From TrEMBL:
<keyword id="KW-0805">Transcription regulation</keyword>
<keyword id="KW-0032">Aminotransferase</keyword>
<dbReference type="Pfam" id="PF00155">
    <property type="entry name" value="Aminotran_1_2"/>
</dbReference>
<dbReference type="InterPro" id="IPR036388">
    <property type="entry name" value="WH-like_DNA-bd_sf"/>
</dbReference>
<dbReference type="InterPro" id="IPR004839">
    <property type="entry name" value="Aminotransferase_I/II_large"/>
</dbReference>
<protein>
    <submittedName>
        <fullName>PLP-dependent aminotransferase family protein</fullName>
    </submittedName>
</protein>
<dbReference type="GO" id="GO:0008483">
    <property type="term" value="F:transaminase activity"/>
</dbReference>
<dbReference type="InterPro" id="IPR015421">
    <property type="entry name" value="PyrdxlP-dep_Trfase_major"/>
</dbReference>
<dbReference type="InterPro" id="IPR000524">
    <property type="entry name" value="Tscrpt_reg_HTH_GntR"/>
</dbReference>
<dbReference type="InterPro" id="IPR051446">
    <property type="entry name" value="HTH_trans_reg/aminotransferase"/>
</dbReference>
<keyword id="KW-0808">Transferase</keyword>
<dbReference type="Pfam" id="PF00392">
    <property type="entry name" value="GntR"/>
</dbReference>
<keyword id="KW-0804">Transcription</keyword>
<keyword id="KW-0238">DNA-binding</keyword>
<feature type="domain" description="HTH gntR-type">
    <location>
        <begin position="21"/>
        <end position="89"/>
    </location>
</feature>
<comment type="similarity">
    <text>In the C-terminal section; belongs to the class-I pyridoxal-phosphate-dependent aminotransferase family.</text>
</comment>
<keyword id="KW-0663">Pyridoxal phosphate</keyword>
Length: 500
């Protein structure tokens, strides 16, 4: 087939695809399906990456990534000095039928839960650059110090630190309890603390130890998609509870069908940055006490706050111990550390320790021992203080640049804590299309609409992370993003002005 015709074929296929996937994945899927449908035959030469990127109006790297995936999977073959061709080994109807059966079987072979997990996947393979939300700057982490502490325990204590652990390394739990007493005004004992491999594991453990299949879990709307997906995968019915300026706002009618779990991020709601008001905190605690619900308090980024006040934790306010507190080191140190912790009511601590050992096993004691010393020697607090200044500057630069380039086309929320800012569009615009076009410019934007479970209440906007983006990159990336937003706004206005 002529390469110009291939460009047109791919363009038409992209126009009919859903926009939820990353752009290079959409292109990969469009090309793969054209091959499987025999619209592209064995031996057909594909357009060069430069030609296809120009014809589609996308970045060349987007095309390169799609081609590389197809080459790796055997759909394409490269010929030295000649380009990329549809693999000759795929010629023939029998081979294509077998490929289609294989793909279908994989999908049909999943359980209902597996299909749900796969179909609702929202995590991104891209975890660096402008504007990934919630990602710290790992380049500024003191890895030399961290390596020294890890190697110290690798050589000195490796015998006892290579075993499974029940609830975590004792000195680390003591250090966390002391740290929370100072930073969060929480009174807890080390035996109430359980060390885990990330907040998702913590949520899964809560769901399995406290709930039965079909139980209700309230989640914030909009809210963290990861929590929603984990709770759903554990068999819970997730019920979205809308937010207002005071945070999660359950209505009297909601309490008529009380949940088993209430998932909330009160100190800095994700993604809006809203702080749960004291009135709402007390009301949630009262509701949990009277209905037997458990509150999961996700304090995922409280270390990164930019004013002189720190909001008291729900855990510290709960007199009847109905709150489970989640904390993580991934946002402060580096995501690949995968160490989090939960602080449990005294009556739950022993059962959760048993559950964790039975379901997941504990481990990573060498990293836990190194982290205990990292905290004890003052490196943890020093890193927080240093990064707080860095992130505050980046937040301010992002806010100023967005105001300069987009003016009142967008409005921001949040910013008192965390590593991201949420921008709302003042006019109706497809935020998924904004994200798709931004990706073609090398920018990762999380559309606000993806944080909603229900369709009725969805608002459009952009969640922009600044934690891992140096100031100079923010200053060059915002003009590119602004052009994308302006183009989509003009397109939306054009559609709105057409006669019915």
């Amino acid at each position: 087939m002529d390469r110009q015709l291939i460009c047109e074929l791919v363009r038409k296929r992209l126009e009919t695809q859903a926009s939820g996937q990353l752009l290079h994945n959409q292109l990969y899927l469009a090309l793969r399906q054209a091959i499987l449908d025999e619209q592209l035959q064995g031996g057909d030469q594909l357009p060069s990456t430069r030609q296809l990127s120009q014809e589609l109006g996308v970045g060349r790297n987007t095309v390169v990534r799609a081609y590389e995936q197809l080459l790796m999977e055997g759909y394409l073959e490269g010929r030295q000095g000649s380009g990329s061709y549809v693999s000759e080994t795929l010629s023939g109807r029998e081979t294509f039928s077998a490929q289609k059966r294989l793909i279908g079987t994989r999908r049909e072979g999943l359980s209902r839960r597996g299909n749900q997990i796969a179909s609702h996947a929202t995590s991104s393979t891209i975890q660096r650059g402008a504007f990934i939300p919630g990602v710290p700057d790992t380049d500024l982490f003191p890895f030399a110090t961290w390596k020294r502490l890890v190697m110290r325990h690798m050589s000195r204590d490796k015998g006892r630190l290579l075993d499974y652990s029940g609830s975590g390394y004792g000195p680390l739990k003591s250090a966390i309890a002391e740290y929370l007493g100072v930073s969060r005004l929480m009174s807890c004992q080390p035996q109430q603390i359980l060390i885990l491999n990330g907040s998702h594991q913590a949520l899964d453990l809560c769901a399995r130890m406290l709930c039965d299949s079909g139980d209700r879990a309230w989640i914030e709307e909009p809210g963290y998609w990861g929590a929603r997906n984990v709770l759903r995968a554990a068999g819970l019915e997730t019920v979205p509870i809308a937010l207002d300026e005071g945070g999660m706002a359950p209505q009297p009618a909601d309490w008529l069908h009380p949940p088993r779990l209430i998932y909330v991020s009160p100190s800095s709601q994700y993604p809006t940055g809203t702080v749960l008001s004291l009135e709402r905190r007390l009301a949630l605690l009262e509701g949990a006490d009277s209905t037997g619900a458990w509150i999961i308090e996700d304090d995922y980024d409280n270390e990164q706050h930019y004013d002189n006040r720190t909001v008291a934790s729900l855990f510290g306010l709960s007199r009847k111990q109905r709150v489970i507190y989640l904390g993580t080191f991934s946002k402060v140190m580096f995501p690949g550390l995968r160490l989090s912790y939960m602080v449990l009511p005294e009556d739950l601590a022993n059962a959760f320790q048993i559950g964790n050992s039975e379901l997941y096993r504990g481990g990573r004691l060498i990293e836990q021992a190194a982290l205990a010393e990292f905290i004890a020697e003052g490196h943890f607090s020093a890193h927080i203080r240093r990064m707080r200044q860095v992130y505050r500057e980046r937040r301010d630069v992002l806010q100023a640049a967005m105001t300069h380039h987009l003016g009142d086309a967008v409005s921001a929320s949040g910013g008192h804590a965390g590593l991201q800012l949420l921008y709302h569009f003042r006019e109706p615009v497809d935020d998924a299309m904004v994200a798709t076009h931004a990706l073609a410019q090398g920018l990762v934007v999380r559309p606000l609409s993806m944080y909603y479970q229900g369709r009725e209440a969805r608002r459009n906007g952009m969640n922009l992370g600044y934690g891992g983006v140096p100031v100079e990159r923010i200053e060059t990336a915002v003009p590119l993003l602004a052009r994308v937003v302006e183009e989509r706004l003009r397109a939306a206005r054009g559609l709105a002005s057409r006669p019915a």
